[in-house]
Amino acid sequence: MSLARLQAKLERLGRLTARPGAVDSAALAHAAHEALKDGPAFLTMTTTLRGALELDLVYALVRHRAWVRAASFREALAGFLSAEYRLAASSARELVDVVAVDAVAVDADQGHQFLRYVFVLTATTSDEAELALDLGLGDGLIAGLKRAIAGASAMSAEVPAYAGGLDQAVRTVMMELAELSADSPWALDRERLRYVLFEASAASEGEPVVPGDAETAATFAILLELSRKKKRPKAKLAAEGVDFEKLRRAGLVYGDATLEPALSGQELVAAAHADEIIATGAPLDAKRLSSLPLATQARLIAMHPGMSVEALATLAATPATLSPRALEAVVGRLAREAPAEVWSETRQKLEGAALPVWLAGAAQRALAEARR
């Protein structure tokens, strides 16, 4: 248990509960408090430890309100609480079931979907520590998933191998996603979008439903079009049957008379958008780059084969014009591709630069990564 982790989780909980349609965290906290106060397994705990356990439990149930009926989510949460607070597995499972009173029935299909969801997030993240903090289920879930992925990857397709529990489930998920990826290089991005829409639907009335392929593909196409044009009249989108309120609730777009892609929406289609631009063969300079959405900028800098070391060094010389991720991409490519003297000069300038707060952290991370 880390005080910094608990503070960060408390701040995130405040943001989650401020969203429209958020779950009643006060009711969950009351239920958790009562369960911890009366449960025999928790009587020897200090007040501070019970408070930390209550926060971890409430955060997970608020953060994953769409998944509360998933057996694999409940198992993951109970496993985290058991390991973190040295509880018997049965006591942790009982605590989760008692507090999650609004969804006692467990849904087997949701259990599979939750594992698929975490797999997609793990496969597409560049910051595992941030992902673990966001999920609120401990580092063990992601570590266990990666071990299962490694084990499943090592299994020969010609020689059937038995893998129980998580290993077998992960192998099934990997086979599903491998088939999708064979058809499209952006399959995992579309799957991330599917689950963003699903979690957003939990804030509306009724039981949340995982969107089908058609809805997911249509939404992906809308976000890609918005990234190309940066904005579209809302009235025109409404005439085309686009549920912009759902997109806004999911944090994918913003705007009133016109809709523009939010950064989270840009990121989901950035690879597809960058591939389109690269396919045109058009040169990429700072002026062209600045006209593109921030997420597309970062992906192009990381992926574009036509970007010279000179162009990258020019971008690095004006870091304030870049987004944090674009700056990280510039530094990463220069560290790998630039001659030693160019890289040394760039590094020294960045280390001595007075950067805005939102860029300073990105520069420090990129330089630290380059030193490895």
Secondary structure: elements and pairs:
Layout: H1 3-17, H2 25-38, H3 47-63, H4 71-85, H5 89-99, H6 108-124, H7 128-135, H8 139-154, H9 165-183, H10 187-201, H11 213-229, E1 232-233, H12 234-239, H13 244-249, E2 253-254, E3 258-261, H14 263-280, H15 286-290, H16 294-303, H17 309-317, H18 324-337, H19 340-352, H20 357-371
Antiparallel strand pairs: 1-3, 2-3
Helix pairs in contact: 1-3, 2-3, 4-5, 6-9, 6-10, 8-9, 10-11, 11-14, 14-16, 16-18, 17-18, 18-20
* Portion of residues within helices: 55-70%
The computed structural class is mainly alpha
The number of distinct helices, counting runs of at least 4 residues, comes to 20
**β content, as a range?**
under 5%
The rough form would be described as globular
- Widest beta sheet: strand line-up: 1-3-2
How do the helices and strands follow one another from N- to C-terminus?
HHHHHHHHHHHEHHEEHHHHHHH
Number of strands: 3
Low-confidence stretches: 155-164
